């Protein structure tokens, strides 16, 4: 426990970590240690600051006192041992954890990884210390620290406990690496033998975890007390010899005895909140088409889960289906029924097939069992799944809730969206593409619905859950299911960087698309696995050759994986995410569009520095695809591809505007092979449907003509169906038709679908023509997720923006400059580059289009006043008052029928439901040059983007004042979050990012409207 | 093997019922209209003839009951899906006893009988649209939420979604299945609205075939072993424009069936039979 300050950074880390340490059950020694650390840290901090001061151009000028305060707050907190402290601290760790992947994802070379990884941590520190500092600073700072950081692991060892959290993270990464190694054929037996673990083990406290497996057996293993969920999960998967693990997860019972999913990215200890290290291994995402699973063992595990679901009534089915499923179970477990020796009935009755299992059913089961003669266990499993998947409640995760009128309903989350049940009846359904936003606030759960063809406004549907916990749990499940089933890659972390607010939760694993991609690469011989019965009755059941494969086999399979895949996916899994609303990305299609254009963009933009940067900065996600692309786009250099990849990633985050979808969808026809991949991914259902009735489809084709008389939407559909028919059931085709689903939506109601307020769109469009360049310029500046699609629609050049946008965000000033340079031919941009001094301050209100009036400038200048934020002890939710632009009509669901609901939505005049409690802190305007002097408005533009838990409205005005042009950017960021929010951090981040993105601009004003509510509990 | 949801449109048996003399005067109707009993009977005979002779179904013909003027509309008395038959509780008081004979007939056919015990529940078979993948239950004057719930309980394998029926007697007064995944729908506003709801509520995609006349949208689809897709639909006399639409279904065997008289009593084509698949579905 000797914390030698081996280097500044090290110590700092220590302190940071110690601060981050949860207070629970820590030994006194540790605590003292922590205190020590904190003290040291204080000193160090001071140093660092000094350094910064020297290096930089007076960061401290921007450095508000409140920041310092905050720092000290969090430092001392751990020693207090009070629950509230846990909140902020955990946040710190989370952030760190999360930040790592960003870097990770960049497909860095393995060696580089180490340093890079450490970087974010440092960065963070720097950030927090020097928020609002000039952008160049951090870069230098980082370099310094980096070099220090690159020192070998021994240092880490010395840092010990205090460092643990961090090591954990590193550990993960190393795991990742290790995994990669394995894949590269190192011959390691286990993915989990990461060096860090070996090193650390001796000092770690070890806990025994008990995991109940799907066959009812118990698996125990030791994990370090601080291990995160993923570690345990991987252990279990390893034990099970399971490769397609993304469909599965671990659950635990929380203190209220409710089942929760163990977050792979978080420490187990912090999640279980008790000393009950008891888990169960379960299916988390039910694959809509189990036949697409690669391995029998995966299907077997899915079967086990479903048998249980069926037997205990979680998956209701009819008598006949019970019997049928039971008979397949018998066949799989016991093989053919011997005609001469029929199984006695009482043997059957020992097995549970149904909640109310009757003799009659058992007889039926036996009868049906006979008919399965000759079926191998694997075949029986497939049959079982083929039938189970058709059940209406297959894969539906039910949550109790009430509608606005207090009527009991059930909300079911599934691959396709959100279902609303009253009793047994489905009374409403919201497909993922229909949902723009998912959020929760206290015990309320909201979904924002894309307006229908006839509707003008988005509507928000609210449900009441039992408590905050269940609301959050539901929200999480939604986020995860949506991500898993609808996205190609988990939400990228980029924007997260800016939004340090809200729940950081986000789905961190691979998406279905990714996991399919990955598992398609599995080529190990089918692993030998024991069925439950084969344990009880030692009897070989099937003719299927059982090859005994040991670790060696496993290794080979892992070799089969593209190492990149694994790496990336892992890193992705560490992605940080913030906010508790998810912006729902539905159309993956838009990705391609952007991608393509960006590709072009790249051609004239691929300066080395950019490449470099993109490597460094790109968010990790969307791993498998790229690799696939790489294969396809053989001609293009790998580096380019990588960049594309990140761009692809970047696009989705900006998504927000449904208009995007519309637009991109329209472009779809131009799609390439890549597109296909994604589509296959996107919609599974369709292929099923088509498959169901090939004949039928054919018959449908004639339907085409009549349909045409109707809404064009329908037209498209039937046409596509026809296509499918003609081309047979090949998956590719299916995917094509499937895409049509989203296409349909987007293509035909683009005007309506825009989530950007109607007022804005026209405005932008008007300007589009003249201001293409400006759009370009603007885009990169937008912090969160500016509606990229709009530009996309506008013109090719505009398309550059998304790509650029992404980069600057993460980049240091250098990057930013590069970018600017590239654009220099564009006059508008030049101005801003050339006269950084001009930028600032208030453009007279008159220039602001009416709808933006209320907009605050989040573009920031940090100042002392902000410290007031600090004073607010409860960071439950920041919510700047509602965007004036996007009017949201609040329609609450009642037990009435969908029809009525839709009607309401259509007819009612939009009402903005805004919470009125607003605290405003307004910073004095320090930098008010050019104050108020009205100039000539050259351009004005508003971009609204919505994401996760934030809505960012960027309003850019260019004015001509006495020959000088002034660009003023107002950003209004509405952050909706739960109690996890750390305002200060968020603000600091925002400011920092703003600085980074617009190094040439100065921050004139920061207004924070805060809407705080008392959360029922802290989660 | 017999899979779940296999063989949509496969039927082997049909239950029909005779027309009582009381039909002309006493049968319920939404519009006042004179019904020619003889014509109605002729029409009905032709209908049964098509089922029996043309399509080769085994037709169980229940005798008419004079005390049950509406008894010819057997569809409302039972919902049959797979091996399970749900005996309904018709929304019209006067029709409740229609289920007795129906239950007997279904029992004779070895169906698993489920009955509605709840006195608060009402359910007319005409409000139940089975698409092959799921049920839609119209909430109408004749069918209530409770009835729908019981149906959902009886057919647990399937999703059961409710659809408000704003106009018309039953859900199937303006729609029906024209094939697997193909919904035939009337073009009136209420019909289109209902379709939208169904599409929204479903995880599956349906094609739609819109016919100009709501009443023409009620047709009978079957998928028979040696005949393929069969569609019984309205005649040119009744709805010439709609027939033109049906005629575009090139792969269907189209059989126009006259329904001029029964339609006056809100009786559509599907109303006059309960179709059953007794054979184990093909592998």
UniProtKB/TrEMBL annotation, chain A:
GO terms for molecular function: actin binding; structural molecule activity. Residues 207-489 form the FERM domain. PROSITE patterns: FERM_1, FERM_2, FERM_3. It is found in: Cytoplasm, Cytoskeleton. Residues 764-776, 821-834 have a biased composition (Acidic residues). Residues 1-188, 553-574, 647-673, 693-875 are annotated as: Disordered. Residues 647-664, 693-702, 751-761 have a biased composition (Polar residues). GO terms for cellular component: cytoskeleton. PANTHER family: 4.1 G PROTEIN, BAND 4.1-LIKE PROTEIN 3. This is FERM domain-containing protein. The lineage of its organism: Eukaryota, Metazoa, Chordata, Craniata, Vertebrata.
Automatic annotation (TrEMBL), chain B:
The active site is at 170 (proton donor), 271 (nucleophile). Pfam families: DDAH_eukar (PF19420). GO terms for molecular function: amino acid binding; dimethylargininase activity. Transmembrane segments: none annotated. Substrate binds at residues 28, 70, 75-76, 95, 142, 265. This is Dimethylarginine dimethylaminohydrolase 1. The keyword Hydrolase applies. GO terms for biological process: arginine metabolic process; citrulline metabolic process; positive regulation of nitric oxide biosynthetic process. The gene is DDAH1. InterPro entries: DDAH-like. Belongs to the DDAH family. Keywords: Hydrolase. It comes from the Eukaryota.
